[in-house]
Amino acid sequence: MSDLSKLPAAERNRRYWQENLRLITTLIVIWFVVSYVPVLFVEALNNIVIAGFPLGYYMGSQGSLIVFVVEIFYYAYAMNKLDAKYGLSDRDR
Predict the structure, then answer these.
(1) Model pTM?
(2) I need a surface site. Which of 8, 42, 53, 70 has the fewest CB within 10 A?
(3) What is the DSSP code string of 10-72?
(4) Which of 4, 35, 32 is nearest to 18 (CA)?
(5) Residue 1: its pLDDT value, please?
(6) Residue 59, number of CB atoms within 10 A of its CB
(7) What is the mean pLDDT of residues 59-85?
(8) Contact (CB, 8 A) for 88 and 16
(9) What residues contact residue 39 under an 8 Å CB cut-off, 6+ apart?
(10) CA-closest candidate to residue 60, choices 43, 35, 41, 40
(11) Under 8 Å CB-to-CB from 84, ≥6 apart: which residues?
């Protein structure tokens, strides 16, 4: 990969936001799938039982929330790496 510090500021900013938007889009697609797709398959999911609860119920009450929290932590981690890559980290100032 080329050294980003040699690129013009406008190009660095464009690449930074392109990567940022790709990350956000991926996480929103995951959020959508976890939030809305299990509802479409709730009857099939309810045939699977985890700890005494049907999987459809588990996905609605706990599974999606766990995924959302993991997404929040992953987004913070990924953005720290992205900021460091482009020299925008708080440590770089």
Answers:
(1) 0.78
(2) 8
(3) HHHHHHHHHHHHHHHHHHHHHHHHHHHHHHHTHHHHTTSEETTEEHHHHIIIIIHHHHHHHHH
(4) 4
(5) 46
(6) 25
(7) 91
(8) yes
(9) 60
(10) 35
(11) 91, 92
